[in-house]
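Table S2 (continued). Query chain:
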Amino acid sequence: MVNELNNSEKQSDKKKRPKKYWWLIGVIVVLIGIFGGAKYYFDSSMEAVNPGSSKTVQVKIPLGATNKKIGQILADKQLVKSSFVFNYYTQTQKKVEFKAGYYSLSPAMNVKTIAKILKQGGSTTAVSGLKGKVLVQEGQTIDQIAATVQKQTKYSSKDFLKLMQNESYLESLAKKYPKLLTSSMSAQDVRYRLEGYLFPATYDVSHLKSLKVLVNEMVAAENQQMEPYYAKITAKHLSVQEVLTLASLVEREGVSNSDRTKIAGVFFNRLDTQMPLQSDISVMYALNTHKKNLTYKDLKVDSPYNLYTNKGYGPGPFNSPGIQSIKAVLNPTAQNKKYLYFVANMKTGKVYYSKTYAQHQKITTKLAKDND
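Corresponding output:
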């Protein structure tokens, strides 16, 4: 009887065993498929967007931009297939340090070629592909726009900056666009009343008759973009100057739209608690320079634009913000979470938010160790 049972059990085991093996084989096949798909996606994303393309695209890599932000810029310009893959690739390379500047890139270039070019460094001013055009990029200051105008037109940067200080001209613009410029004209201690009001876009200057014509077009474009939001700005008890000031900070502090809206929420929380906005962007504008790292001495610079030492919004915008940053200020998120601090991982671009200074310091210390 015992032998008969054992034989029966063995036969039963033989019947069950193949089912288990098939299940295991199935799992392995699925994993191989997933791995193979991921490898195919990665390899494909490393290739050129359009190998047969002959066109070039001008790209500006801002100072202090993370690899994640650079990847997003390249993806937005359709120069890489995936910002994620670009960022992942750069993380796997040793000592990858991309340099700020203007670059002339092509969709025919693969990721490795683009990365190699970005490591070599770009031009400090606009490069090829913009003959007869002036490009105002998101986050540019009036001083930077003046440099572009000098390169792309017959007018000098001094001519442009002189127009920016022409009170009678500014007053004529304010009369034409009162909703847009009234709060700017009444602001105190501003460097340029039109800082933040020259809309980021490409302007045709091939038949430019005067600088006023160009600036008129820039301000008109800003007014057109802002028109749908004037009622909302009034309802929120804000001025256009305040909205554009915060938007100019958000423009430089945030990378993704999600982070922009959260950072806007942090700034509003700071304002609600009478806390200084404490943005490095404000200090660099006060110093009229760009630095990767600010010193404690820098943070104490005597300027109304220094939002470490001065509470509130300060005199006005610090650059020309894009429409997404403006929308972020008008639609902030996560305010109810009471975040008062944020810091970005300079390698990955991920932003961490904190409610207290102690939490913020803990995160900052950990990131400093991880990035060493």
